Amino acid sequence: MRERYGVLFLVSGPSGSGKTTLCRRLADEGEAHYSVSCTTRLPRPGELDGVDYHFMPKERFVHQINEGGFLEFAEVHGNHYGTLKSEVVALLEKGLDVVMDLDVQGARSVRSCKDPMIQHSLVDLFVSPPSQEELRNRLMGRGTDSQEVIELRMKNALEEMKFWPEYTYRIVSEGRDTDYLKFKSLLISQRLKASLLK
Amino acid sequence: MRERYGVLFLVSGPSGSGKTTLCRRLADEGEAHYSVSCTTRLPRPGELDGVDYHFMPKERFVHQINEGGFLEFAEVHGNHYGTLKSEVVALLEKGLDVVMDLDVQGARSVRSCKDPMIQHSLVDLFVSPPSQEELRNRLMGRGTDSQEVIELRMKNALEEMKFWPEYTYRIVSEGRDTDYLKFKSLLISQRLKASLLK
C-alpha cells in the first residue's frame, strides 16, 4: 500500500462538550499525536523541555510570531502558548496523524494557514454539548465552585457554541462511547482521502 | 438533536475490488438504502415493480433522459438502466442515507448534477484491489471461466483503476472486515457534516 501524509484533526468545543476527553483517548490509543506546544511560562517540576513543552523565552516566542512560525498562538494568564508550524508539518510528512484541541480563534488561525501540507491535511470538528441543561450539569461537575463561577463558565460556553457553523463536521455529544465512535470514525475516514496519498 | 439530510454515498471500483459486497453489507445492516433503479428490461419472475425496479417502457425512459430526470443512466446488453434524481432526493430529504454502486461514468454523471441536495449530500469513494496478483485471483474466483474471459476482466479492471484520483476518498482493499470498518467509518463521519443539518 502506498504511503500517505498525516491527518491534521482540529477539534473545538466549549468546556463541558467533552472534546478534551475525546482527544486524549485518541492519543492514548495511539491513533493520533499531540504536537508539542511552545510556551513562555517556566517549567513546572517534572516537566521536560521538548516533551511536555518547548520552553522558550518571550523574545524568542515573539520572534517566531513575527517570522510567521506559529500555526496558532495565544496568551493565557500572561503566558504565551503556541504551536510551531514546522513541528506539525514534520509529523504530517511522516504520515502521523495530529490532533489539536483549540478554541475558535486558534482554529481560525490554523484554517488561514497557507501551507499546502496543512491545507491538505486539515479536517475540523466542533463538539457541542447535548443541551443547556446537561451543559450546566457538566460545568457544575466538581461541586466546589461558586454559582458565580459556574454562571461565567456557562456564559462563555454558550458564546463559544455559536461558532459551530464555521466547522465542516459537528458532533452533538450524546454519551462517551457514542461520541468516541463518531470521533474515531472521522479520523479513520479522513485517512482515506485520496489527496493524502504520497 | 436537530434533524439532518441524508448522505449520498457513491462507490466505484473494478470487479474484484469488493465494492459490491461492501455496499450490500451496509444496506443489510440498515445503515444505508439503495434507491430503486428504473429499467427498460422486462421483469423476471418474482420481481416487483417499484421494489426491485421501476419497470418502464423505452419511450418513457427516453422521455426522462430528455427531461434531465436521471441522476445517471446506462445501457447494458441493449437494456437501459437509470436512477431517478427525484427518487434519490426524496430519500435524502427524509434524512435517509443512500448508497450507489456505480462505474466511473455513472459517478461522473452524479457529480455533475447541479441539484443542491445532491451536491450537499455527495461523498465519493473508490475501492481498489490490493494488488494485480490478488485481483487476478479474485477474478478467477469461480474457476469456471476461460483464460480469455479472465484476461478481458483483468484488462477492464486495470483500465477502471486508473480513475481513482477522480474520487475524494479511496480504500485499498486489505480484507473483508478491515475494508468494512473503513467503509462504514466514512458513512458515519459524513453524517457529521454540519452542512447536512436541517
Describe the structure.
- Two copies of one chain form a homodimer.
- With 198 residues, chain A is of the alpha/beta class.
- Chain A has one domain (8-192): Rossmann fold.
- Chain A is 41% helix and 19% strand.
- The first copy, chain A, has a four-stranded parallel β-sheet with strand order 6-1-7-8, with helices on both faces. In chain A, strands 3-2-5-4 form a four-stranded mixed β-sheet.
- In chain A, helix 6 (132-140) crosses helix 7 (147-161).
- The longest helix of chain A has 15 residues, at 147-161.
- The N and C termini of chain A lie close together (11 Å).
- In chain A, 35% of the residues are buried.
- The mean pLDDT of chain A is 94.
- At the A-B interface, strand 8 and helix 8 of A face strand 8 and helix 8 of B.
In short, what is this structure?
The structure is a homodimer. Chain A is α/β, with parallel strands linked by helices.
Please render the helix and strand layout as text.
Two copies of one chain form a homodimer.
Chain A: E1 8-12, H1 19-28, E2 38-39, E3 54-55, H2 58-67, E4 70-76, E5 79-84, H3 85-93, E6 98-101, H4 104-111, H5 116-121, E7 122-128, H6 132-140, H7 147-161, E8 169-172, H8 176-190
Parallel strand pairs in A: 1-6, 1-7, 2-3, 7-8
Antiparallel strand pairs in A: 2-5, 4-5
